[in-house]
């Protein structure tokens, strides 16, 4: 099927919720034309300010109009001040890091501790890149699970290097990782080093524009809760939801959202793909409704 501009509309490869069946269709409209038909943004990016740049650029290069509207921000957690001492004096066989934000907070505490030698277990490639960019010889990434989630990390972390684990985490992180490790015999010390809280002040014009978007993109369960509180459950159900990974997607589904898209492997490329798939399907539904 060709778009009205003469260009070929892209394929959509999508998966309905957690249905096992995949469908391949043409959307009937190319993304660039869909963007030009309306002044409303097609996609809302909700990550913390300063974390949307690469994603925004990748989407805009595809002709997709974007609104950056951060819905959460990071604040110090109750245990942040205790992190340097835990790194200096704790017998830590592993330090487990489960997000880029946790990595950034850890690095600040680690520098305050005098940069001791540490063996790290990171949940996935996105988190690992934070340490690769830091290029600190004293930090060794000793383990990354086969799939980037708490279940696989807790099930696969090697026991032969020792059982003492330091887990600097978000105060809102669930207990899946800690409980899974403890069930296998690890001794876990969790420090809630940071928290994510809703942004308190948003521009009314941004909120109004966001309500008309086709896709809302999320990188954390906290942002999804903020979105529903801002937009409302019914209006949220009408918007396609693109998530950075399975944990955020599961949180979206638990909130009753149905049009949820997410990649198998978290990271920028997979996140972009999930957003594009969500947008193509939303455009196709709009075309069919107008027919």
From TrEMBL:
The reply on keyword ATP-binding is no
Keywords recorded for this protein, A-Z? Lyase, Porphyrin biosynthesis
What Pfam families would the database entry show? Answer: HEM4
EC numbers on record: 4.2.1.75
Catalyses:
hydroxymethylbilane = uroporphyrinogen III + H2O
- Its annotated pathway? Porphyrin-containing compound metabolism; protoporphyrin-IX biosynthesis; coproporphyrinogen-III from 5-aminolevulinate: step 3/4
Which residues belong to any copy of the Tetrapyrrole biosynthesis uroporphyrinogen III synthase domain?
A: 55-272
* CDD domains, per the entry: HemD
Q: What does this protein do?
A: Catalyzes cyclization of the linear tetrapyrrole, hydroxymethylbilane, to the macrocyclic uroporphyrinogen III.
Q: Which family does it belong to?
A: Belongs to the uroporphyrinogen-III synthase family.
Protein name per its UniProtKB record: Uroporphyrinogen-III synthase
């Amino acid at each position: 099927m060709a778009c009205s501009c003469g260009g070929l509309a892209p394929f959509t490869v999508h998966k309905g919720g957690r249905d096992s069946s995949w469908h391949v269709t043409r959307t009937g409209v190319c993304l660039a034309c869909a963007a030009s038909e309306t002044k409303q943004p097609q996609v809302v990016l909700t990550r913390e300010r300063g974390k949307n740049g690469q994603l925004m650029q990748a989407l805009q290069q595809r002709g997709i109009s974007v609104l950056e509207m951060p819905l959460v921000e990071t604040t110090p957690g109750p245990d942040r001040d205790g992190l340097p001492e835990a790194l200096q004096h704790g017998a830590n066989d592993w330090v487990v890091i489960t997000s880029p934000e946790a990595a950034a907070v850890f690095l600040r505490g680690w520098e305050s501790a005098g940069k001791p030698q540490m063996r790290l277990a990171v949940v996935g490639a996105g988190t690992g890149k934070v340490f690769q960019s830091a290029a600190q010889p004293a930090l060794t990434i000793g383990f990354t699970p086969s799939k980037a989630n708490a279940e696989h990390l807790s099930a696969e972390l090697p026991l032969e290097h020792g059982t003492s684990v330091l887990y600097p985490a978000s105060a809102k992180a669930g207990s899946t990782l800690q409980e899974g490790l403890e069930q296998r015999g690890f001794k876990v010390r969790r420090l809630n080093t940071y928290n994510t809280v809703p942004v308190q002040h948003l521009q009314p014009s941004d909120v109004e524009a966001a309500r008309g978007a086709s896709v809302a993109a999320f990188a954390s369960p906290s942002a999804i809760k903020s979105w529903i509180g801002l937009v409302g459950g019914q209006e949220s159900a009408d918007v396609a939801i693109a998530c950075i990974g399975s944990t955020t997607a599961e949180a979206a589904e638990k909130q009753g959202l149905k049009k949820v898209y997410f990649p198998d492997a978290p990271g920028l490329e997979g996140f972009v793909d999930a957003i594009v798939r969500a947008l193509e399907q939303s455009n196709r539904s709009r075309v069919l409704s107008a027919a």
